[in-house]
Design goal:
Blueprint lengths: L3 E3 H10 L9 H10 L7 E4 L5 E6 L2 H13 L4 H20 L6 H23 L6 H14 L6 E9 L5 E5 L8 E6 L9 E7 L3 E6 L7 E8 L1
Antiparallel strand pairs: 1-3, 2-3, 4-9, 5-8, 6-9, 7-8
Helix pairs in contact: 3-4, 5-6
């Protein structure tokens, strides 16, 4: 599957998804978003007809959908920029752990980590390392609780509208085994608790609060394996 989509195809997909690219030339809107840092710069490469045209990363369509939803909720450009930076930070985290993208690599990492932790424990037992009882106990606790970081499959930023306590987040990769984490960036009072109440295979998940929010509340989420 290609990691890029032509600018023409991006515009076509955006329009079919109801994204407003302005009344003029939609390319101008893409250029403007690129200028202010909301979209990445185009890469020139060949399309399916071997013509050299501008291409954007595939995730650009999700970026346009997020911008559209934030605008529709009345967010300012400053608030939109903050939300987009949050998404980029999560994408960078996913890249950091991309070396764990296969079961073999994850297994090898666990083996090496366990070996070094056990070696450290042995050296502590022999008195080669000075760190006292606390240092030794901490290392033993690390071995007992040692686990591999989750592989992040998808991230996003959305908001739950005011006076709602349940919100559906669409995602085609969700399964009953998915690990889903949600973190709010703004106040969601008077609610005090929130949780993922339901997962629907290949469709998405429901976020539920214990009370309806008094205002739009922005939150970040990620799905891990």
């Amino acid at each position: 599957m290609s990691l890029y989509i032509s600018a023409e195809k991006l515009i076509e997909t955006a329009k079919s998804n109801g994204i407003n690219l302005g009344k003029g030339n939609p390319y101008n809107r893409l250029r403007y978003y690129t200028k202010i840092g909301w979209l990445p710069h185009m890469e020139r490469m060949k399309n399916e007809n071997s013509e050299v045209v501008g291409h954007y990363p595939n995730w650009s369509i999700n970026r346009l959908e997020l911008i559209e939803s934030l605008k529709a909720s009345g967010k300012t450009n400053e608030q939109i920029e903050k939300a987009l930076k949050s998404v980029e930070a999560k994408q960078n985290i996913r890249k950091i752990f991309s070396f764990l993208d296969t079961p073999e690599k994850r297994t090898s990492t666990v083996v090496y980590l366990t070996f070094f932790l056990i070696l450290g424990t042995i050296l502590l037992e022999l008195g080669i390392f000075s760190g006292g009882l606390n240092a030794k106990q901490n290392l033993l606790n690390q071995i007992r609780s040692q686990s591999l970081p989750a592989r992040i499959l998808e991230t996003g930023t959305s908001f739950i509208p005011a006076r709602q306590k349940t919100f559906f987040i669409p995602s085609s990769i969700v399964t009953q085994e998915s690990r889903i984490s949600v973190t709010f960036e703004s106040s969601f009072t008077p609610a005090s608790k929130y949780w993922v109440s339901k997962k629907i295979d290949n469709q998405g998940f429901y976020l539920e609060l214990d009370a309806a929010t008094s205002q739009d509340a922005t939150f970040n989420w990620f799905i891990a394996q």
